Amino acid sequence: MSRHDVFERLRAWDEGGAIPNGHTLPWLRATAADRLVLAFVRMGGESSPWGIAIGRPDAPPEFFTCAEPRNADLHAAFVLAAADALLRHVEHPSLLPDDERLMLLAMEAPLRARVRLRQLWVPGPSHLDMLHFLDFRYTHANTGEPKVVRRLQAFGRACGWLFRESTRPGQVRVFDATARLRRAYTFPAEPARQSHLGYLLAWLVPGRTRDERLADAREREGLPVSVTMSPAYERAVLEPLVTRYNAARDDAPAQAAVAREIHDALVPELRRRWELTAQAMSILDADTRESNPHLDAVIDLGSAECFHEYWKNEAKGLDPSLSDEQRRYLVHDPETDYAPARAARRYFAHLHAAELAAGELVHGDATLAEQSLDAGNGFRGTIRAVEREAIAGKKSGPILWTIECSADDSLRLREETSVCLVGARKRIGRIRSLVTVGAVRTVVLQMTDGLTRRALPDVPEAADVAAHVGTTVTFLEQAAAGFTQMKIFRVGHTDGPGAWLTHAAPLPEPSPPVRIQANLLELVKSLQ
Amino acid sequence: MRRDVRRRLEQYASNPRCEANVISAVHDVPMEAVARSLGFEVAVGQSPFALLRGQQFERSIFRDDAVRLRRALITQKVLPANAAGFVDFRMARNDGPYPNLDASRAAFLQRLGAFAKTVGEARLQLPTILAGPTLMVPGKAILPDGLFAIDVLTVHPQPRPAPIVLRVGEVKVYPDRGGFTDAAELSSTRAQAGLYVHALRVELQQSKLAQHFAVADDGFLVLTRPSFNLPSVRGAEDLQHQAERAAVMFDRVLRIAERTLPADSATDDVPTTRRQAVVDAPKQYADGCLAFCELAAHCQQEALARGLPAALGDDLGRFLGPITLHRALELLHGAAPQHDVERDLVARIS
Ligand code: SF4
Fold first, then answer.
1. Do B313 and A191 touch (CB under 8 A)?
2. What ipTM was estimated for this complex?
3. CA–CA separation, B344 vs B349, rounded Å?
4. How confident is the model at residue B1 (pLDDT cuts 50, 70, 90)?
């Protein structure tokens, strides 16, 4: 929580409602055809769903429930019924004709274009967790008719991939509606209360006073929106029904009738969660702010991830000539990466995604740029001199910009850091020197890229003294996303630094636990 | 009903700065009763399905001499491959042989005494899993209901004169999802296990068995495998800090408990005078209240009415310091600051 966030919360309290965060939204609005809204409920203590509401936001959802979710066969049948909508959403290759699938596998780009804007919306984090649980439960399903088992496994893997994708920084495919609202707005409530979707939506109702919104938010907070239903509802309504259902074991028609009652009791719970999600989505769609104009790279990375981390292996796995063992290596196991190098690769992939999103989006949103400045990731100042460095024996030396900033601003950048100009991000400089005298910090930049009109047609050349001197500029640290991306591949090498950790067989033993040393001096001595 | 000591200690630790909370935890005046007495609706209780699942899971891991649990403990190297033997100290209502906690504790101490005397081969073949042994927390006179049961202990005998190592395990029904396991659940489970480590050490001291046994600094958690009724063991959980935290907490609570309340007694009901003591005590609303205290909505409302910034988050409380929300808004709208604290705030928000 930064100083900015805290201050904004105070402002939101002053305004009596939620206030916008930033100048843009860091995702694109997709059409209803590209969107799927999904909500779950579960039986208390169980870790897989009891009911699923699923559907496009422009039509009523479908509701799937299971009378007795602790019965494995019933549960599998219920999940199977709900699976198609999700598999269609992720373009599962088993739903495509063979020739189309092979074409998409060979060409990559058409599939990536198809899934580029696909979005899955869920009410909150516990619903995302449910995707993970379905991965655990069905990715390794192994009993039943082969066709059914394959479909259940495919559903488990789709859920697993969507869950993993939801954890990748900056991703714009899986939307936790609660988190997205908090990203888009500042709410006048303590952070702990902001994990309830209904509570947040109450603060967004237009034309009300603060007290009215607060009262509404408190009331809505009483209705659960996570996957867990209220224990009172379970006790009063669902438990007697489930008991009756199990008691009617030998009477199929009676059991079917109770199953319908259970379904009817679960639907309102599912409907509320689904509708709140759809409502959050439409509020965000109706927001007057534009989507961040620098989202392309982020979305491209998302479609590449979809192809390489999910779709490609799904399509390859349909090749009938593969053995079970060969297929196993195409499947991401919910419990393990199998190899440390694979885990390390994913770590760098996430780091790369975070750096890319931060580096790109900051140029499309003035608020993000301000926050980045606040955090000391750049500087703003006035250009005092533009000159060419004289180097003996050379006709022209590098272009140097001398910029004066306030010494009071925080700055965590050091000499040799590369920075780019906000508003013309291809113009890059390297910090030559940083000198602070009194209240003035002087930064000398050696301009390295984007110097000419050819590189930046709309901006005066870097060496143009008259155009630049006296103007105010903002520079931010240049994102080093490319460097991390390189590591994603490097970590696979068996001879690079750290290979002893990622490739050693058997793996090194963990270090033994160290006793607590309350006395720091003693601790340091013991380490010597 | 008297609530268990662990929950009361955790309640105390959740907001030790709120005097009402401290009184409620230490003198066992349930907040739920206080909230009801003030006319608030209180949603209490656990899901009946979750309760049943918890019981079934615990039964399943101890069934047939704890074969499922032993297998998981051996796989995770908590126990050696040849580990054998199981002793059940659970109460009858949990499928064990003992009618109450006192009987369970007596049997446990007797068994420890017998363990301490073993030598040679017999010592190395001691039973390795003890289910539900009961301990008595120190300060029983002040904190009534000082008995509580540990979920599971493992026994790691060594040849004399080395002590027999006891390792604490905590059983929970929530799923183990590796790095995605609920962090809040994990930390409260570790806190609970740390409390047991401390209490077991104290119990061994009190029973004069300390020289024969050592309680390991590390313990293990028994969670469920997602979507299956099988145990997933997390071994080598470092509980040193948690045990030390428990020791400090015990100490503080005992000192606070010396201040008796009107009509403080060991009976089961909560007289009005005691509830009133909680109602009248000063409150200090904080972020954590929402997660554990039945008065959270009421206290937040009161804090907002008084303009206390912590009502909108601990961080805002720190940001504004002694300045109320009402005054902060006035300053935000251009009112002239009256003293240094206000001047500092204006400098920070302008
Ligand atoms: S909710 Fe109120 S009574 Fe409960 S701990 Fe917080 S401030 Fe104290």
1. yes
2. 0.88
3. 9
4. very low
Whether a cis peptide bond, with omega within 30° of 0, leads into A510 is no
Average pLDDT over residues B48-68: 95
Burial class (CB in 10 A: 0-12, 13-18, 19+), A188: buried
User: Domains of chain A: which residue ranges?
Assistant: 3-335, 361-481
Q: Which domain holds residue B231?
A: 48-257
Q: Which of B238, B311, B316 has its CB closest to that of A513? A: B238
Look at residue B185 and tell me if it is in a domain.
yes
The CA B327 to ligand 1 mean position distance, Å, reads: 24
Whole-angstrom CA distances from B125 to A158, A198, A304, A372, A514 are: 49, 58, 58, 63, 29
Contact at CB, A44 and B43, closer than 8 angstroms: no
In a domain? residue B115: yes
Q: Which residues of B touch A129 (CB under 8 A)?
A: 177, 180
Q: Which residues of B touch A516 (CB under 8 A)?
A: 240-241, 244
Rounded to 10 degrees, what is the CA torsion of B322, B327, B332, B337? Answer: -80
- Alpha helical stretches, state H, A322-464: 324-328, 340-361, 366-374
pTM to 2 decimals? Answer: 0.91
Q: To which residue do tokens 């028994």 refer? A: B222
Domain total in chain B: 1
Per the omega criterion (within 30 degrees of 0), is the bond before A320 cis?
Answer: no
Q: Kindly report the CATH number that applies to the domain delimited by A361-481.
A: 2.40.30
The angle at the Cα of A204, spanning A203 to A210, to the nearest 5 degrees, equals 45
Cβ separation B316–A192 shorter than 8 A: no
| Residue with the larger pLDDT of the pair B72 and B2 | B72
**How far apart, in whole angstroms, are the C-alpha atoms of residue A390 and residue A396?**
7
**C-alpha to C-alpha distance for A455 and B171, rounded to whole angstroms:** 64
B217-252 pLDDT, tens digit per residue, is 999 999 999 878 899 999 999 999 999 988 888 787
